[in-house]
Amino acid sequence: MVTRRTEATGRKPGLTTKSADRSAEAICPPVAYTIAEFCHAHRISVALYYELKRSGRGPREIHLNTRRVISAEAAAEWRARSTVDDSSASTMSES
What is the pLDDT of residue 30? Predict the structure, then answer.
């Protein structure tokens, strides 16, 4: 195990950039996601994202020149559409 001396690195012990990013997100949640950020936040692969998009079940995108982003509202709408109601799922499996 390699231990880094904090006085040599200048870093605070226990604070990584990932934890700093998470705390920043908790204070100010993202207004828009890139496709990679959206996939990471929703725990899906990029391949699944494009498969959902191809089938018309993906979130709405905002086109900014060559970039495509997904607003937080579009992500929330997509989650609401994608969530299966327990009562409707049980009736679908019974028929």
Answer: 85
Q: Give 83-89's long-range contacts (Cβ < 8 A, gap of 24+).
A: none
Q: What is the mean pLDDT of the chain?
A: 80
Angle at CA of residue 89, ends 74 and 48, nearest 5°: 45
Task: Map residue 25 onto helix, strand or coil.
Answer: helix
Q: Say what the pLDDT of residue 3 is.
A: 62
Place of tokens 């495509």: 68
The answer to whether the beta carbons of residues 6 and 13 sit under 8 Å apart is: yes
* Residue 44, helix vs strand vs coil: coil
